């Protein structure tokens, strides 16, 4: 198998047929003596997506689909696909045609030049709200400042990678997946190709702001200790100031005996310290929650249905 294409699907009934046509048309233009497979991962869709994938699977032997038992989220859906991919090269692509299948030959050609990962970098993004573009831009920059590893900015999961990278990813058991960070962490020779990100072809985004926030926190906590350290440092700084103020208060109370009743300053310091403590506890909580998830080692996902379930070794 030369190429496995992994496509996460969450309520994409409007796009599946067009995507299938464009993908197969594009892959047919490439020289792939070993052939290719399309791995659709249905991430608990509530529309006709699964029925459409079943029909595609019946019609085309190169189509593989798995259906997760509920909505586990984009990153886990892609991970499920990676666990099943047989190809010497693996492509990750969104189902909504925002990532043009026409870019795959260029990505693949660059991979064959001797890279292990070739990711597609967005030159521009169309049809997305200013808030989404702004939060995405800010997030990539903040992450860059906070981490030691070089996570490319303005890059999603649209990329092609070698089997070596896929096997390495399978060895990374962490529960809160942030694939683009994990792949950057792996190292090897990586390259990029630029493209203009199109509008979503049909349907609506499956990435709500709450999913985006969770994703951003997963990325930061998995690849940076800076928030944890910042909480500790600011905790010490504020406590130091509070200690000096306390000495001053005692001094005015017992030595000069010239003091204000102190109600405002008392309230302010109590509230301020309370706030700082809450922030610190919150940051620790974020890490603890993830630590807990990794200690539990639950399976990342459960496959409810698979059109090649009979294959030995699965
Ligand atoms: N997706 C998924 N599970 C989810 C949300 C999204 O598998 O919970 C898929 C979705 O079908 C698409 C890809 O992930 O193929 C990217 O999602 P989307 O286009 O909704 O995100 P956006 O482009 O708006 O960031
Ligand atoms: Mg999209």
Q: What does it look like?
A:
α2 links the parallel β2 and β3. The protein has 2 domains: 211 residues, Alpha-Beta Complex (Spore Coat Polysaccharide Biosynthesis Protein SpsA, Chain A), CATH 3.90.550; 71 residues. It starts with a strand and ends in an 8-residue tail after the last strand. α5 packs parallel to α8 and α9 runs antiparallel to α10. The protein contains 10 helices and 8 strands. The radius of gyration is 25 Å and the shape is elongated. The structure holds uridine-5'-diphosphate and magnesium ion (MG). The site of magnesium ion has 5 residues, from loops.
Name some characteristics of this structure.
single chain; 314 residues; alpha/beta; Spore Coat Polysaccharide Biosynthesis Protein SpsA, Chain A; 2 domains; eight-stranded mixed beta sheet; 10 helices; 8 strands; 50% helix; 17% strand; binds uridine-5'-diphosphate; binds magnesium ion
